[in-house]
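Hi there. Long-time user, first ticket. I'm pasting a complex I've been working with (about 698 residues overall). I'd like to know whether the download I got is complete or cut off, because the file seemed smaller than I expected. Thanks.
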Amino acid sequence: MSSTTLLMPEPLHTACLTLLQAVGVPEDQASVVADVLVRADLRGISSHGVLRLPAYAHKIQAGLLKPDTPWTCLRETPTTVLYDAGMGLGPVAGLWGMKEAVKRAGQFGISAVGVRNASHFGIAAYYALQAVEAGMIGVTISNAAASIAPWGGIQAHLGTNPVCVAIPTQDEIPLVLDMAASVVARGKIRLAQREGQSIPQGWALDSEGQPTTDPQAAIDGTLLPIGGPKGYGIALVNDILAGVLTGSPSGVEICSIHDLQRPSPVGFFFQALQIEAFSSPQDFFDRIGTQLTAIRNSPRARGVERIYIPGEIEWECERDRHQNGIPIGSGTLKALHELAEELGVQIQL
Amino acid sequence: MSSTTLLMPEPLHTACLTLLQAVGVPEDQASVVADVLVRADLRGISSHGVLRLPAYAHKIQAGLLKPDTPWTCLRETPTTVLYDAGMGLGPVAGLWGMKEAVKRAGQFGISAVGVRNASHFGIAAYYALQAVEAGMIGVTISNAAASIAPWGGIQAHLGTNPVCVAIPTQDEIPLVLDMAASVVARGKIRLAQREGQSIPQGWALDSEGQPTTDPQAAIDGTLLPIGGPKGYGIALVNDILAGVLTGSPSGVEICSIHDLQRPSPVGFFFQALQIEAFSSPQDFFDRIGTQLTAIRNSPRARGVERIYIPGEIEWECERDRHQNGIPIGSGTLKALHELAEELGVQIQL
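Hi, the file is complete. Here it is re-exported in full:
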């Protein structure tokens, strides 16, 4: 049995800031990491929220993740840049990378930014939404530690390698497709494990290639890709864009952020695209409004109360939790308090 | 029971050329369309091959598809262009659009080209592979007539809206992920219908939202998206990029190419990306070679003979059929002969 505690985002953010600064992260960068983690919890993606902070802190303490993120430009064209994040913080490198993509797309129409050697960046949506805030379409891709087998294989070779596309709409709710190539994100299995719950059939195979409902067996085995060979292809393409193209580790070279013996660098691939390059914004917003309204009003299957636009559930969750607080699992809360004690700092949660 | 006839690609191409010219398509454009259709058959995607030609011809004869493709530039930035294909031929507009994307990416690093008001363009891979031939990464997206319901809905609202990513590799076999957002492409169901075969469970729902193995019921109902809400999201994002952003029809506005009462314009969205923008080509080819070799050698599940890279099966099929001929179904062959008779031209098949 697990319980949850309702916490407001501000004190949660402050606690993250305190913990990150205690392991040497400069305040401005700690604020970015805290923002990314708390926003995941706000959006209902607790598998990528403050639950992750102890792993980040332990990796920094082990000297395997740089608390002050290096940032070196390795290569550029008018519309593209490749950065090396030098084993620094994924959320910081992610924000800096996407902001550069937005800047270049503003000048040239479309842009792409690659980042090598960053750490896990949390929810991909955080970065794609930076483009939406600038009135653009944003795309975020990352690779990750291997958890999916090539189609027909039994050994994990590719990460769930998420892709997120965020698109501004006619109202304040952006369209956000944020998806792992697996049926579920690895973080959801990790959360089930932490909270002592089993997982549904169809999410994963054990190390012998058999279906399993045990989260530990799933973590030791492989995650099932969506659409079989299609999901395998998505994971591979994302690995090539974020890892192979950027010169970051790829495939089985990537190790887990929970491994305290080795660093766990990953790569990112960002794109930003001006709406104005293709349409007057007003025409675009009129057309997308017509399309999304028609979808929301589409006839529903029996028992279905609403049809959602991708990202709408997360948007409503974020609005609700900003007002009413975020339910944080007892396991996560305990881990944050233990970390504070370990670091000799006070957090008010 | 259906039978097949082995045909070499050259006479098949010549027959297509004859039939297309007979309905008024200029020779250079007819050659592009024939090339796209025959290449689909060469690659084993017969659902998108010469089987489609009678529908194209009938649409032209009905005055709903322009045999001589118009091509108007509506908007441009240094890295992006939007074209109107004026109800012209999809394969022609697709080739022209991707060639422009490749040209601009060569100048600026990355580019995107939108096309509105074209017709069905066949296999998305044909266009993405144009970028590979120029040493670049290519992305092709199209929208299509509605066949997928929004997640939780029962009425078709989105096309299978394919996306193809093609990536050059260390050897002559490019990586080609060419996928519809549905579990299977609509064309596969149409082929089963034409050849009098049933379809597997899990491909589609009938018009009441129930599982079906009857291809006609599936065509009247909706296709299941991969990964449930994820596939719905992919279909919607692709519709927005190819349709809403370009100002082409989107969602339920798109009608089938088989409809002889109305035109059936669709939109395309192409991207090209220089490898050199991010890596020396040699380093990239070394890294991707390491990755793909490791995948090919990955341990296999019992009964699996080989692990394939996306696009490898199609590449081997193409090489084999170039030498040994293409099996064309009797239904397709009959339809081509009937069309030739109808148009009063001779074809040698």
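A couple of notes from our side: The first helix of chain A runs from residue 9 to 22. Chain A touches chain B through 74 residues (CB under 8 Å).
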